[in-house]
Amino acid sequence: MRYREMDVAALSELLQNKQVTAKELAADALQAIAETDGTVGAYLTVAEEEAYRQAEAADKMLADGTAGPLTGIPFAMKDNICTKGVRTTCASKMLEHWLPVYDACVTEQLKKAGAVMLGKTNMDEFAMGSSSENSALQLTRNPAAPDYVPGGSSGGSAAAVAANECAFAIGSDTGGSIRQPASFCGVVGMKPTYGTVSRYGLVAYASSFDQIGPLTKTVADNAKVLEAISCHDRRDSTSLPEFDTNYSALIGKDLSGMRIGLPKEYFGEGINADVAALVRNAAKALEGAGAKIEECSLPAVSYALPAYYVLCCAEASSNLARFDGIRYGYRAEGVEDLDRLYRKTRTEGFGREVRRRILLGNYVLSAGYYDAYYKKAQQARTLLIRAFKELFSQNDMLLAPVAPTPAYKIGEKSSDPMEMALGDICTVPVNLGGLPAISVPCGTVAQDGANLPVGFQLIGPAFSEAKLYQAAAAYESGV
Asked: Is residue 419 scored above 70 in pLDDT?
């Protein structure tokens, strides 16, 4: 039996019925990685010994009756999330050999649930990118079409799920980094409400945007994983104290009376016609399931992309200042002067895209430019939050493309930062508002002999994950 092709729910049932052990599932998943990852390149580190240790602990939980829905399920972790004793690189030369001495909160939660970590997945360096081509350590390919990118920055996590190299994976989403690779690879990806999943142990890119979330094969699996990793954590000052984590509660319920808005700005210039058609077909399917679909307008979305890049780069310049060659990580050699040590270490340790964003962040925070750029970007963020609030007073959720195009060929956009940035135009508004959004596969686009997956996203107000899962599951089941 090929366990690797099964979803979380099916594997959990086999484990609970004693038809397979967690150790057998781990062995099958590790074999899948050995057979396919040479082509896909999803993993930076395969933690075989750790996986078998966790599988043994999971089998004990299954034997003594303390198992949950994720006990014994093999998964992959994005490599910007700390795992005690397991290499965590952020796909950067700066942290290539770093072994954390503590677990991230998400890592703790998954260990508590009995899930089995197979290893750490590739990404854009420090989560800065949309294709996973910015990794300093290796290239990840799209399992659906090996000449195409898997998306980013959680490209390795999405590719691992799509290639059946794990049952689910964990990613992080700063401006679309879960949803866009989920769309490109044909899997389900959720960016939760800001503050519902602890950022403790997530190596920060932009602290007011970053949020951890799951990538899975099905909507129901996604809800179960999010239930396991959501919690209040006093170690994260932005962690919310009280919220309902029963995200599966509405799955299977009909959509009668649900109001879904279709913002016209998400279907304008730059949106691939085939992508737009697939997303509109998804809207029709949800309408057939009982939802009421109405076109609406979100003019403030035009401010989203410039505001996002100003604010994210500003936060990145601050967060990455700690990598100085003194405390930990890469340190340049042959330098005696302290200022030159800083300069050489950061020049050699950071890739081109990371250096570009740090420089931009320092610029917009500098004297004489702070009001012109950073302050105005914050004001634009406020306008967008208000605009979303107004739309959600009339709609339960919004439906839109995840990305303006399907996946593109490796190397096609890597030399043009502006064109790459425009690929985030549909996703960054959600992060500016701290909102939840889910990417769901809705078909493929034929291009140069390849069938490229496409996803649509459902965007809701804060804490609306259960409703988003309800609608996504209804679409997925074809109700």
From this structure: yes
